[in-house]
């Protein structure tokens, strides 16, 4: 990141990354002319592999690219968390390359529980997961990847503090990676297979997103925070409203936000399904770069915005904001001055209730009035600003002799935040008030919350968190725990009251001496007065050169890690002799195909995790859950994964037949890897969830949809299936019709079923090679 030695006759020097960005941007401008661009478009299109081809071939002179073109992008870096990094690295290893093509980092944050407090939990977590951490650390050394061990921090906070720079494009193997959009980056959450494409230097494909503009005016009120903006938006957009969109914020209200406030809003764009979210670069962004000891980055960002210097036309400048007059596919205007604090939940982040209505809603809905626990921090809300605002509330309550009535937990987002809050006395304020400071890890946010308040599984209860997600069982594994999302300030005030019906704006608490106490409005500081304390940054291993002599640590007897074997290539003919493993009815999400919870520990061991394949799927012919019948063994009754395992051993390839939106939910690549590992060649259904459909192709499974959905009724478990035209279609780069010839089990009756596909030219190559990885491994 040192300044380039290349000199220009006009304008300042640019560092190499910005020189690349600028050169690409100039190409974008050459192709698109004076078209007004949003910030997201400027950054995204300036990372295209081939600007001219991408912007012109798919569009009407570059004007209707959104939602139409397939962009081939070259990201600047990849960030991986420990749970998803395992499969990403196992796949990368099988490509046989000596180093990653672009910088990457691993963050050990998901595998530590939240129970007794930072030190005890960290020690226990390291012991329980030692072999996974050893594997990740050795792979980092071998391939020259930055390694942030347990305790160093949560991926999104660490990325924001260390790697996020305006104008970059990053991929992260976690859905909340868009957090870095607060620093004007395009950061997209992906699965391991996508990460590997970027790690080997292959272009990464994305359907050009549409842009949802959110224009902010006014200024947030005393108790209202950036978190309330996104909670409010989630209520308006719902969990699917952002699908296919980048959410771009603009307008004068943006300048009233801190950098970390912008990051919080971007983080939770994942809750409305957005591809990512982004804010312009502001004075607050520059202040944050300086506070995190990256003053040179602020100088570089300013240099880029002034380049190429006086005399150039206005379009020649790359500015970290939308052009005046840029068009949005959808536009929402929000006056921040009119926004209220919100509480969202239970069980879904888009069930938004303004604070003023919450007491009434709790009572009408019969939700618990007792608040059992309040949890603040996490990757979403553990900034210096968040924590010092909370501290101001706690200090006032303390002066009045009050203590929280609910158990109160604090999760710092990173070692840097933790050390700075410790240095500045904030952590002492929390612990003196009875708060429990947990490790700088995901812990309670990802189901590793071990309750110490005696609430047993199955008991309905309410908790309040400043996290981002609140699906059933998300925090403590108890499906009856109602998790409401709110700002850290609201969580804290309500924890003192111990009730879900308390409104700190209007209600009072009674002090031990019998007086009425009303919380004053929270007051905090955007950042520390001196730069952040880096704490035990030496824990992290950064900027290491690859070391080919390192043996990646995987024990042959490990139950948690297993090297991957390449999948077989597609045969040089159509498929024949397939059998329908199971015909599924109803929802079949990625959770149905590859369950989480206790199975998470097998994420790096494909054979072991495959024992959960489709284990909550409903058999359409019997109505039973996870029950299948072996057509090749007198209809013996077994579980679905058992039948898949039996057929794998026999060398019997198979397919699944399903209904609509197969694979909805997350980008979980295991939901594609596992069926492939067990012998699936086709999934045939009424419709697919888009990301899962792509994931299947990447693993060499062909997703097909019924041309006539009524044909679903004609195929059953155990029927034999052959393809007609599939091989020719793949060889023709995705062009041509495909049919299935079905031979009914028992009667031998035969008929043909026309099917549809969305296989592109590149995807046809993946499938023929056996998987995208096979193709990448041979340099395809
Ligand atoms: Fe971790 Fe929760 Fe964020 S799981 S990465 S703290 S969303």
From TrEMBL:
Domain Aconitase A/isopropylmalate dehydratase small subunit swivel: 580-708
Comp. bias regions, Basic and acidic residues: 515-531
Keyword Membrane: no
Membrane-spanning ranges: none
Enzyme Commission designation: 4.2.1.-
Top-level class of the enzyme under EC nomenclature: lyase
Protein localization: Mitochondrion
Protein name: Aconitate hydratase, mitochondrial
């Amino acid at each position: 990141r040192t300044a380039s030695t290349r000199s220009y006759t006009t304008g300042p020097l640019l560092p190499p990354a910005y020189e690349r960005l600028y050169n690409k941007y100039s190409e974008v401008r050459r192709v698109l002319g004076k078209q007004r661009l949003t910030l997201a478009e400027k950054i995204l299109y300036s990372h295209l592999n081939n600007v001219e081809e991408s912007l012109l071939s798919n569009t009407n002179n570059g004007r209707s690219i959104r939602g139409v073109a397939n962009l081939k992008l070259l990201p600047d870096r990849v960030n991986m968390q420990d749970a998803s990094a395992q499969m990403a690295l196992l796949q990368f290893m099988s490509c046989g390359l000596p180093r990653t093509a672009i910088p990457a980092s691993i963050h050990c944050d998901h595998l530590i529980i939240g129970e007794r407090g930072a030190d005890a939990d960290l020690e226990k977590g390291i012991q329980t997961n030692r072999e996974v951490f050893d594997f990740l650390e050795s792979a980092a050394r071998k391939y020259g990847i930055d390694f942030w061990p347990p305790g160093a921090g949560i991926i999104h906070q660490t990325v924001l503090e260390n790697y996020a720079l305006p104008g970059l494009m990053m991929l992260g193997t976690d859905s909340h990676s868009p957090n870095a959009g607060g620093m004007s980056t395009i950061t997209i959450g992906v699965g391991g297979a996508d990460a590997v494409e970027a790690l080997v230097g292959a272009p990464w494909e994305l359907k050009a997103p549409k842009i949802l503009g959110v224009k902010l005016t006014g200024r947030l009120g005393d108790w209202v925070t950036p978190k309330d903006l996104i909670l409010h938006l989630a209520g308006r957009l719902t969990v699917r409203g952002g699908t296919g969109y980048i959410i771009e914020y603009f307008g004068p209200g943006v300048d009233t936000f801190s950098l970390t406030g912008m990051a919080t809003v971007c983080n939770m764009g994942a809750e409305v399904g957005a591809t990512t979210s982004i804010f312009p670069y502001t004075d607050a962004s520059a202040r944050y770069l300086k506070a995190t000891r990256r003053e040179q980055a602020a100088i570089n960002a300013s240099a880029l915005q002034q380049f190429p210097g006086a005399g150039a036309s206005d379009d020649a400048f790359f500015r970290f904001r939308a052009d005046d007059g840029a068009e949005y596919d959808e536009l929402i205007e929000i006056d921040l001055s009119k926004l209220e604090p919100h509480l969202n939940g239970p069980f879904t982040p888009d069930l938004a209730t303004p604070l003023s209505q919450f007491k009434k809603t709790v009572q009408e809905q019969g939700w618990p009035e007792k608040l059992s626990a309040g949890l603040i921090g996490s990757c979403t809300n553990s900034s210096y600003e968040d924590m010092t605002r909370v501290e101001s509330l706690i200090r006032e309550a303390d002066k009045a002799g009050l203590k929280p009535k609910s158990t109160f937990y604090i999760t710092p987002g990173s070692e840097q935040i933790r050390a700075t809050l410790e240095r500045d006395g904030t952590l002492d304020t929390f612990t003196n008030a009875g708060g429990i400071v947990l490790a700088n890890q995901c812990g309670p946010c990802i189901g590793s919350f071990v309750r110490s308040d005696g609430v047993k599984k199955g008991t309905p209860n309410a908790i309040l968190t400043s996290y981002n997600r609140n699906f059933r069982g998300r925090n403590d594994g108890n499906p009856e725990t109602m998790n409401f999302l709110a700002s850290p300030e609201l969580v804290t005030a309500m924890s003192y009251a111990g009730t879900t019906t308390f409104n700190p704006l209007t209600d009072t608490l009674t002090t031990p001496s019998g007086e009425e106490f009303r919380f004053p409005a929270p007051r905090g500081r955007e950042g520390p007065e001196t730069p952040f304390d880096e704490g035990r940054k030496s824990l992290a291993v950064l900027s290491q050169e690859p070391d080919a002599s390192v043996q990646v640590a995987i024990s042959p007897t490990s139950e948690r890690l297993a090297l991957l074997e390449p999948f077989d290539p597609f045969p040089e003919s159509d498929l024949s002799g397939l059998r329908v493993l199971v015909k599924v009815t109803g929802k079949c999400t990625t959770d149905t195909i590859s369950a989480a919870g206790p199975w998470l520990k097998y994420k790096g061991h494909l054979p072991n995790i495959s024992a959960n394949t489709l284990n909550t799927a409903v058999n359409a012919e019997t109505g039973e859950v996870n029950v299948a019948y072996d057509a090749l063994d007198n209809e013996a009754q077994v579980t679905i994964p058992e039948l898949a395992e039996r057929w794998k051993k026999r060398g019997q390839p198979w397919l699944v037949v399903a209904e609509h939106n197969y694979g909805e939910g997350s980008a979980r690549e295991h939901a594609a890897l596992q069926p492939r590992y067990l012998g699936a060649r086709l999934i045939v259904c009424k419709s697919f969830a888009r990301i899962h459909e792509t994931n299947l192709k990447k693993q060499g499974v062909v997703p097909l949809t019924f041309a006539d959905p009524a044909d679903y009724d004609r195929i059953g478990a155990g029927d034999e299936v052959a393809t007609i035209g599939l091989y020719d279609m793949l060889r023709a780069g995705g062009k041509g019709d495909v049919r299935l010839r079905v031979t009914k089990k028992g009667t031998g009756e035969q008929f043909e079923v026309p099917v549809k596909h969305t296989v592109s030219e590149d995807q046809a190559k993946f499938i023929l090679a056996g998987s995208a990885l096979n193709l990448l491994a041979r340099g395809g």
